[in-house]
Amino acid sequence: MLDYSEFLNMVPEIVLTAALLIVFIADFCCPRLGKERVGTLSTIASVMLAVTGVVSAVIEPSTAFGGFYVASEAANVMKVILSFGSLIVAVMAYPWLQKCAANLAGEFYMLLIATLLGMFFMMSSGNFLLFFLGLETASVPLACMVAFDKWKKNSAEGAAKYILVATFSSGVMLYGLSFVYAATGSLYFDQVYNGLFSGGPADADSCGLPANALAIMGMVFFFSGLGFKISLVPFHFWTADTYQGAPTPVTGYLSVISKGAAALTLAIILLKVFQPLVYYWEYLLDIVIVLSITVANLFAIRQSELKRFMAFSSISQAGYVMLAVLGNGPTGVAALTYYVLVYIVANMAVFTIINVVEHNNGGRTDMAAYNGFYQTNPKLAFLMTLALFSLGGIPPFAGMFSKFFVFMAAAQQGSFAAYFVVFIALLNTVISLYYYLLIVKAMYITKTDTPLPTFQSDLHTRIALAVCTVGVALFGVCSCIYEWIAAAGI
Amino acid sequence: MSILSVFVLIPALMLLGLWLAKSLNQVRGVMVTGASCLLALSIWLTIYFIQERAAGNTAEMLLTYSTPWFKPLNIAYSVGVDGISVVMLLLSSIIVFTGTFASWQLKPLTKEYFLWFTLLSTGVFGFFISTDLFTMFMFYEVALIPMYLLIGVWGSGHKEYSAMKLTLMLMGGSALLILGLLGIYFFNGQYSGHYTFELTEIAAAHAIPGDIQNVFFPFIFIGFGVLGALFPFHTWSPDGHASAPTAVSMLHAGVLMKLGGYGCFRVAMYLLPEAAQDLSWIFLILTTISVVYGALSACVQTDLKYINAYSSVSHCGLVLFALLMMSQTAVTGAVLQMLSHGLMTALFFALIGMIYGRTHTRDIRELAGLMKIMPFLAVGYVIAGLANLGLPGFSGFIAEMTIFVGSFGAKPMVGDPNDSFRMVATIIACMSIVVTAVYILRVVGKILYGEVENKHFLELTDATWDERVAVVCLIFCVAGLGSFPFWVSDIISPAAGTILQSIGVM
């Protein structure tokens, strides 16, 4: 007999479902083509996301349905952060919605909340089934969001690529999960852990044990499946086209929120479930991190289209995020969560600016459009510079702190391989700084006869930018943010 | 709350003031007020420090203060000064003060220029007061990145190339540095059981085994050495200096390059003493090359700024050279050299900037007879030149004399190839003195004396009041340090001794 009161343990998800319904009703109630329609809906969605964030921040860790649903402290902290990030997306999407999709604003916000709901379930799953459900709930609405500018060829193409890759990677992952089930006889995280562990801890000596071989294969397939979602090299081929084709707010959402959720889930599952296989996944991670960071950085240098450029930058940032998992402990998870938070504010600042520039200048997103940007729009250029410095890891902005902490988390492991990966990642920070500085150079130094004309950004953009800039400036220096995250543990 | 934090607080307030400033006069007002406060504070600090020492306070660091910052990671905001940091702070505030006047006329985007300029100074001051490795490193990077925009936007010549090259090379250095810091943190924690970023605690624990020290020492020494123009990582320096606007060159050669030497000594050698003794001979060879190669390169340059940039490579090489000798006299000389080189080079770059601002060329083949046209600047240039080649009475002589005396008598270290290695290196490095005289006198003779070839130059004017302030201040300091060296070396020498004792070579 199902105990319905157990639903009450899933407070953030319930609030988010309520948000979904409220936006749905509001969408009906708003006059169909009223002038304030987008503004009203955006306000409602933002308020509901803020409420979700606050609720996630105050509730205690909980479980429901016999360990099917496990909201750990780390997951709750991540929920706060992702609600906060989605809030920024909801606000900054305003100019785009107003211009391109005013009558579809309700749908956009519903999809946004629905995919966030999927991520919440994914992060607080205690069973691979719920994890998979959450993942799909997150993926399908996201594909619709990518295709939102459906009259643009790019957007449709990006969505097609995204949905194909998403289903393919889900297939790979399910295949892997079936191996895990075969090896351990369960899909519950703790039982899988025990099942793997009873085969003896896997280390150099037990390499190739038949009992473990299935589980190892399952783990590798599972890893590849999530690797697609986080867009780690070599699973990154969809990223650039999808990012370029998607509407800019959706690109921002893809690059920070969905990536952050998937990264945390992967970290938690690797640390909690596949811990007995640590010997194997550590090497897997070493290779994938080095590849992600290096390959993406080298590709990013050659991009002249800003959204493609940010796509490669986000692949390399994903590599840095995974660096934290190498630490194999609570410090690593804290560093990962903190990295995601800092990455959200910096990246959303960049995307907000790309978005507002795009909608004031006939859809231009190429890098040459930013030549001489400082002369005509000094404030936006300055904020963009701060955000890029943060992405490049320059103090006193938050990015340097988050980078340093993931390096610390990785080096904590103490092996030669870990130091080597950190070293490669460090050298790559120099390369990444080079291409971030290319944009700074375009804005400040390159002379042009036809800079973008001066324009006034709207209120929503300003709010989003103000929030992001405060984050970029203070999330590092104010240690309380990190301490709050670190207090959560795994 | 220590008074030292004010060194960071003032630039932070200056940033706020600049952000709010509406007119050019307000910007200048903020800069002059802030820079004067910093100068006054550092003079007060020097006097206070001398008095405390005279009163018998022998603590290694004075005015210490520490508060946890990122508690779960054992990162703290800790400050404290010893004799070496005191003189470095004094130097920095002098350069910032004179740099403000040297960029008085700068256009366009004056406000933005001073914003980045002040951010750079924040980093420099923060670096010298920090005693926590993480905080120190953070300030170090704060000081580096404004250079990109300062050179890229307000520079001249191949400014985009130089700015990018400089930024990437210095950031490459700091990437090595992070790895070294992580190594020190984790291995010190592992062997001493106490994870900390605190400099003095790590040095006191002395827990890291020698072979691990040998792994991380090159990372840190090269990481800081890039900024200290260590051969072969010095190539950013000539291009960067040549393209930078005047005050940035001053700040750069005057202060920023000192961060390198200071860091090498304070972090690499202080925290990894065994490795310093084992490996110093390798870096001694590199620094000897820096010294001689820099001086020889300066002889064949035709651009005034390139000449000085290579001369800086040579002189900064001498700083690292003397530090690696690890004798109290040589290290005292090294710090004196940092001070002296900072002041002299700032003076040089200020004068070159002023000359360039009038003649619009820095090519020595096109300049001649400036003594008749702009006597004030020309006399300043002669003084800077004589100080640079080590004329007694100026700071250069004191510093180089101390360095060579200390180095010649330095004890051989365990890692040295043979016992006379340090003497041979000293003798080779000494040759740079002669070469310095060659390139300085060549330039002075060529550009200041002789007939005026370009008739347009005859209409040029001498220095304006703001330029005179900058030049007179710096000449006063150079001559003051040269005439009364002992009050400074008395501050430095005990601090150097303390660190060398901790390294175990005294």
What topology emerges from the helices and strands here?
The complex is a heterodimer of chains A (490) and B (506).
Chain A: H1 11-29, H2 37-58, E1 62-64, E2 69-71, H3 73-92, H4 94-100, H5 105-123, H6 128-146, H7 153-184, H8 189-198, H9 210-230, H10 239-245, H11 248-272, H12 278-301, H13 306-326, H14 330-360, H15 373-376, H16 378-392, H17 398-411, H18 416-444, H19 459-477, H20 479-486
Antiparallel strand pairs in A: 1-2
Helix pairs in contact in A: 1-2, 1-5, 2-3, 2-5, 3-5, 3-11, 3-14, 3-19, 5-6, 5-11, 6-7, 6-11, 7-8, 7-9, 7-10, 9-11, 10-11, 10-13, 11-13, 11-14, 12-13, 12-18, 13-14, 13-17, 13-18, 14-16, 14-17, 14-19, 14-20, 16-18, 16-19, 17-19
Chain B: H1 6-20, H2 24-54, E1 62-70, E2 75-81, H3 83-102, H4 110-129, H5 133-144, H6 146-154, H7 159-192, H8 199-205, H9 210-227, H10 236-243, H11 246-271, H12 273-300, H13 304-325, H14 328-359, H15 370-373, H16 375-388, H17 395-408, H18 421-448, H19 465-483, H20 486-503
Antiparallel strand pairs in B: 1-2
Helix pairs in contact in B: 1-2, 1-4, 2-3, 3-4, 3-11, 3-14, 3-19, 3-20, 4-5, 4-6, 4-11, 5-7, 6-7, 7-9, 7-10, 9-11, 9-12, 10-13, 11-12, 11-13, 11-14, 11-20, 12-13, 12-18, 13-14, 13-17, 13-18, 14-16, 14-17, 14-19, 14-20, 16-18, 16-19, 17-19
